[in-house]
Amino acid sequence: QRDQRWEMRVHPAGEGVRIVHLVDRTTSYAAERMRVDFVANASHELRTPLASLIGFIETLTEEAGEDPETRTRFLRIMLDEAVRMQRLVDDLMSLSRIEAMKYREPDARIDLHALTTEVHDQIVATEAPRAADLLLELDAVRPVRGDRAQLSQLLHNIIGNAMKYGRKDTPVRIRLTAAEGDMVRLQVADEGDGIAPEHLPRLTERFYRVDSGRSRAGGGTGLGLAIVKHIVEGHRGRLDIASTPGRGTQVTVLLPPAPLSSRRNVNATDGI
Ligand code: ADP
């Protein structure tokens, strides 16, 4: 195998005898390479808007800055670039926060019905008219054990993608249902262009995009699904992305229920 890495350890064991240990370092090598790639990618993603900002500032300080129309146009572009950098830094911070919390199981009882409705309302307030295509089909489900802020971000990221990559005037269905083993199933389905099968296994990698131009044009950082994957793992849940090119994409998240009797956060609004 190409990326197999072995470390050889030699221990002297008396007269002319050596014990040779071969230690499989494949996993730690792959993790280290991922970390190096991540830092390189993140730096590159930040460098591009930064270089563009510096270019515009330089031009504005020269004679082009004297023409009010040019100035306004350049300032708008600069604002877009700065917002792009802010989004990226926010996502990078979320990712490291979520990774750090992975080893502490979230333990609040979350009513996903209420949370999904709340996120839907927030999107409608900020992203009308596209939000008019959002269809909620929410069953009353058991509370899940989770972290409210993280689950809210998960919903925003998945619904945001369905709106971004779905086709205009086609519905985005958000379903909440009971699943096997008392799990709760959240599914977001769009009727967009879909994703070719060869890309599916890589979608949750940091900075992996099928179409970089389209992702950037929609304000994407390439980190949304990586964040979703980490949130799902931290919640001991499952993430599945299925897609048919030309027909659409379904993102499904299965989350374990909160224990029936929990001393924390039990109150009348928890439902079951
Ligand atoms: P981005 O910020 O680029 O949207 P994500 O990590 O959220 O990053 O998604 C990674 C890539 O997966 C996107 O760039 C896009 O190519 C693809 N993708 C995600 N969701 C969908 C969807 N609902 N339909 C089609 N493609 C999608």
From TrEMBL:
It is an enzyme of class 2 (transferase). The keyword Electron transport does not apply. It comes from Stakelama saccharophila. This is histidine kinase. Coiled coil: none annotated. Its EC number is 2.7.13.3. It catalyses: ATP + protein L-histidine = ADP + protein N-phospho-L-histidine. Keywords: ATP-binding, Kinase, Nucleotide-binding, Phosphoprotein, Transferase, Two-component regulatory system. Residues 41-259 form the Histidine kinase domain. The chain holds residues 143 to 414 of 424 of the full protein. It comes from the Bacteria. GO terms for molecular function: ATP binding.
